[in-house]
Design brief:
This protein is an alpha/beta fold and 296 residues long. The protein has one domain: Aldolase class I (TIM Barrel). Helices cover 35% and strands 21% of the residues. The protein has nine helices and 16 strands. The strands form four sheets. It has an eight-stranded parallel β-barrel, surrounded by seven helices. The longest helix has 17 residues. The model has no long low-confidence stretch (mean pLDDT 96). The structure holds ligand RRO. The site of ligand RRO has 15 residues, from loops.
C-alpha cells in the first residue's frame, strides 16, 4: 500500500535516502536496500574526484546539522563502478546525483550514470558550499537540464535551494527545460561561531543547515511546487525525523520523502517511518493518493 510512482520509476515505499548521506558505495547501497528504503540517492558527484573543504566540516546543533563538506566525492567514474556492481543485486532504484560545472559535464555524467544502471538523475545546482558549482541562478540550471534532457531518457530531478524567492516561476522554467521533478529542498546557508575561540566553527566558514529547523521551509516549498505543477514528481526533503513529518510532506504534495539528517540516529529510522505511515493509513482507511497534496 506504500508503492509510489516517481515520474515513472516505481518505488516500494516513498522513503528515499537523500543525497550526501551514505549513498557512496556498493556495500551501502545494498545495506540501505535491506534496511527498507524505497530508493537510494548517491552522494553528488563531480567529473573528477574532490577532497572537499577543511575540517571540521560538520557541527551538530540541537535542531539540526550544519555541514560545509564541499562535495567530497570519488568522481563520476568510481561512483559508476559502485552503481554498476550494486544494481544487479538491488530491489530498489538508485538515483544518481550530479553536481556539474557546465552543460558538457552534465551530459557526460548523466549518460555515464544511466549506463551504469541509475534509474533517475538528480541535478544538484544548490550546494551551499562550493562557489563554482553551488547555489545557481535559473539560467545555469536551465542550461544543465536541457543538455541532460537531450542525452538520457530517465527522469531528471532538480535539487533546489530553499533560497529561491519566486518558486512558481523557477520551477515552471525548469519544467519547460525538461525537468521531470524536484528534490525540495537542499540545505539553508548558515554559519556557526565558536564564541570561546572567537572564530567560525566550520573549516569552510559557512555551511548548509539541515534537520528539523528546515522542515517548515521544505513543506512550504513543496506546497508551492505542487500548486504550480500538479504533474511534477516531488521528493520532499528537509528535516524528516518520523512518520508524521513524512506524512506532512506528502500532504503538502510530495510523492516521496527524503531522509538524510535523521539517519544519524541509525538506519532503523527507515522502517520506523514506513511502519508509522502504513499504520496511519490503515487506521484512517486512507491511501497515499488520498493524502497527497490534500492541503487546499
Ligand atoms: O557536499 C556538500 O557540501 C553539500 C552538498 Br553537495 C549539498 O548539496 N548540500 C549540502 O548541504 N552540502
Amino acid at each position: 500500500m506504500l508503492e509510489v510512482d516517481l515520474a515513472g520509476v516505481k518505488l516500494r515505499n516513498p522513503i528515499v535516502i537523500a543525497s550526501g548521506i551514505l549513498g557512496i558505495s556498493r556495500g551501502l547501497f545494498l545495506r540501505l536496500d535491506r534496511e527498507g528504503a524505497g530508493a537510494v540517492t548517491t552522494k553528488s558527484v563531480t567529473l573528477r574526484p574532490r577532497s572537499g573543504n577543511p575540517l571540521p566540516n560538520i557541527v551538530e546543533l540541537e535542531f539540526g546539522l550544519v555541514n560545509s563538506m564541499g562535495i567530497p566525492n570519488p568522481g563520476i567514474e568510481l561512483m559508476c563502478e559502485e552503481i554498476r556492481s550494486a544494481v544487479p543485486h538491488m530491489s530498489v532504484p538508485i538515483i544518481g546525483s550530479i553536481a556539474p560545472t557546465s552543460a558538457e559535464e552534465a551530459k557526460t555524467m548523466a549518460s555515464l550514470l544511466v549506463e551504469s544502471g541509475a534509474s533517475a538523475v538528480e541535478v544538484n545546482t544548490s550546494c551551499p558550499n562550493v562557489q563554482d558549482i553551488g547555489i545557481n541562478l535559473i539560467n545555469k540550471s536551465v542550461e544543465l537540464v536541457r543538455s541532460i534532457d537531450r542525452e538520457v531518457d530517465v527522469p531528471i530531478l532538480v535539487k533546489v535551494t530553499p533560497h529561491v524567492q519566486d518558486v512558481p516561476s523557477f520551477v515552471r522554467t525548469l519544467s519547460e527545460a525538461g525537468a521531470d521533478g524536484f528534490t525540495a529542498v537542499n540545505t539553508l546557508k548558515a554559519m556557526v561561531i565558536d564564541v570561546d575561540l572567537l572564530r567560525p566553527v566550520l573549516g569552510g566558514v559557512v555551511g548548509g543547515l539541515s534537520g528539523p529547523a528546515v522542515r517548515p521551509v521544505a513543506v512550504r516549498f513543496i506546497y508551492e511546487i505542487r500548486k504550480t505543477l500538479p504533474g511534477a514528481a516531488i521528493i520532499g526533503t528537509g528535516g524528516v525525523e518520523n512518520w508524521r513529518d513524512a506524512a506532512e510532506m506528502i500532504m503538502a504534495g510530495a510523492d516521496a520523502v527524503g531522509i538524510g539528517t535523521a539517519l544519524r540516529r541509525g538506519l532503523k529510522v527507515i522502517n520506523e517511518v514506513t511502519d508509522g505511515l502504513r499504520s496511519f493509513l490503515i487506521e484512517r482507511g486512507l491511501t497515499l493518493d488520498d493524502i497527497r497534496g490534500v492541503v487546499p
